Amino acid sequence: MVIARGELLRYARGKDGYTARFEDRLARLIGVKHVLTVNSGSNALIAAMAAAGIGPGDEVLVPAYTWVATALAPLAVGAVPVLVNIDASLTIDPQDIERQITPFTKAIVPVHMQNVVCDMDAIMAIARRHQLLVIEDACQAVGLQYKGRRVGGIGDLGAFSFNHHKNITAGEGGAVLTNDDRYFERARMFHDPGAFIRDHAPTSEPLFSGLNCRVSELTGAVLHAQLGRLEPLLKTLHARYPGVADIFSGRPRCRPSPHHSPEDAVALSVLFDDPEEARIFGQTRGAGRLIDTGRHVFTNWEAVLSKRSFHERMNPHQWAHREITYNVEDHQATLDILSRTCRVSLGAQYPAPVMLLQKRTLRAAIDRLSAQSRPNGGG
Ligand SMILES: *Cc1c(COP(=O)(O)O)cnc(C)c1O
Hints:
37% of the residues lie in helices and 14% in strands. It is an alpha/beta fold. Bound molecules: pyridoxal-5'-phosphate.
């Protein structure tokens, strides 16, 4: 349809375009005033930071467990990421946020990891007390609810990703969300070098230089179609959660990970006392110990840890007010939790009968572990 029309530019049809219609629908679903579709979740984070005026000299708090793009986004606008530990919920630890705040801290980026929501009440309270911005990285949590509100629309700004691995996808894509008119206008300018020739409503925001992070109508059309799949997916996951979580409840040495909005849970992980038991259980089909994949663990973020930039004079670390260090010893708490936590798939892709078999597999694996006596506390 898009191709037949030959109008692949998202602004060719104004409000009738697929991208614009997708943005309207997504804004209504999330309960946020503005949605701006961009070409990746990474660029959604960068556009959100640029929109909020984050830049050189600023410190941005990010969790030590997330996709590396969360930590790279501050660097792209000239700021530096400061790593914060996670807690057993696998999301940023509010107590460690308080410890990492300095006079130079500008923003907190809570990441709703793998469809698990952050402790938003605690985080918003800290942000208010210290006058910090909150930019939610909801790239892995599109559509999720926290105490009845949708994530991405709770902080000052939010970022979604629509890449291949996310809840809805166009292969690549992302979105910036905000209730703030000014942030929205600035994000729109940042993402479109052609902003000055568009017929947007007049704005008092002075034009500044940006980058092209626009999506084409091909992406907009795919996302428009994908949006209808989001609620059924989350409903399925939510319906399966209690039955699978139950398998791990009342056990001596493991339990479902704590959750900040249990009545809305759509993803399960299991916290063990003993990393070795977690390692063994993680080999079960449909499970995986988090530290063993490495993908989201800060120790693998070479581009961040090395503090290298594409050009030395564009290196944000030279503009920081103090030396920022990235020491493994400072984030043992994160590594400890990841070494004791296994993710357990709720099988969105499985039909119900396959899920029954899968539950049997999980139960057998955990029964086997529970039956082994470990008198030395797992030593
Ligand atoms: C996927 C992801 C991103 C980046 O999204 P892309 O669309 O791949 O650029 C950022 N943060 C988190 C937590 C993610 O999972």
